[in-house]
Specification:
By secondary structure, this protein is an alpha/beta fold. It contains nine helices and ten strands.
Length: about 270
Amino acid sequence: MAILDVKDIRKRFGNTEVLKGISFSLEQGQVLSIIGSSGSGKTTLLRCLNFLETPDGGSIAVNGQVLFDAAAAASRREADIRRSRLHFGLVFQSFNLFPQYTALENVMLAGRLLAKEQPDYKARKKELLDQLDQRARALLDQMGLSSRMDSYPHQLSGGQQQRVAIARALALSPDILCFDEPTSALDPELTHEVLRVIRSLADQRTTMIIVTHEMAFARDVSSRVIFMDGGQVVEEGPPSQVLEDPVQERTRRFLESYHQSDRFTGP
């Protein structure tokens, strides 16, 4: 059974249909890379999967549990959306760290908010916060940031901020980790730094969806690749097919335009 099953996701903004019936599935431990030009709907798709946008049509299921069905009113209730969001961890292209919190506090924040909703929070406050602290420290250590836990975002490089963002996305142990062009705001050196972390997560069989323009990286780490254009899936398959021998002319034209721009050269 697929860990993620997306069927016929549609999304409009005003008169513009941004997503035109997107469907795909993802197995446990797979890495799905989504490529396409700006405006093709890639970011909107990730935002719909993370329930930052509400789809106008279609359904989303994780581990066989339907989290969203456009035909069911319950899927649109805020409490249900908040619970559904926990299945996904999202890493934004511009980090989106809270500037008033340290790296450690940023990673712990969502867990703290959820802990306060537990009925026995007051009685178990110290225990729960200690668990969150240990989890956050372990993740930041995994990201190579054990010496920067008390640093604020403005004291960190872009690559360090993105690694904090990855730790934050992992903090609640999501089923699927999503990246929205995680290196687009970074220079080449910092890009390699972040891609090495993502490669390490792939080696650990972390289930991931990566929206990226790093074609060489996508070829190396992906189980499957989707090419989107005009709000549709134009081509889907293993990276050897989509990135090296695409069937569709639109895919070929897109890849030719990026042939000279791959920056990733290895771990």
